[in-house]
Amino acid sequence: MKKTMLLLSVVFLLLPFLVKAQHKASDQMDSFNWGIISMVKFRQVSPTEIYPVYDETVMRFDNRAFELEGYMIPLKGGRKQNRFLLSNLPINQCAFCGKNGNPIMVLINLDRPVDFTFKTVKVKGTLKLDNKNMAVDMPVSLENASLDL
Length: 149
Fold this sequence. Notes:
Layout: H1 2-18, H2 32-38, E1 41-46, E2 49-53, H3 56-59, E3 65-74, E4 80-87, E5 106-115, E6 121-129, E7 140-147
Parallel strand pairs: 5-7
Antiparallel strand pairs: 1-2, 3-4, 3-6, 4-5, 6-7
């Protein structure tokens, strides 16, 4: 049992060095709207409190129709999803790939469930910018959203 645990520990420690990136640079979604989302900055108040900082440019889009194309990151298991995160990078991106850490993700609240996919999806909805603690909830979301099929 101890040998198995030791072997697993060594494998997990070496895994980042053994595995190559799971995506191509061309997989990253870049658009004007993702540029707006990437302008959201964060201020850490304590280890458990991280709040968004929205500048004037970002605030102009609050409570307005907004569209994003990206990858579904499920929040719960199952084929049908009506609440998930949308990322500009694929779900199989490793933590050490990309530019400057993990990209900001947007919470999507769909008006009806859709099938999960690893392909990109286009989502339209109302952009909501809240001053929620990011350590607890997502401050950027698309409400009453639908997939653009």
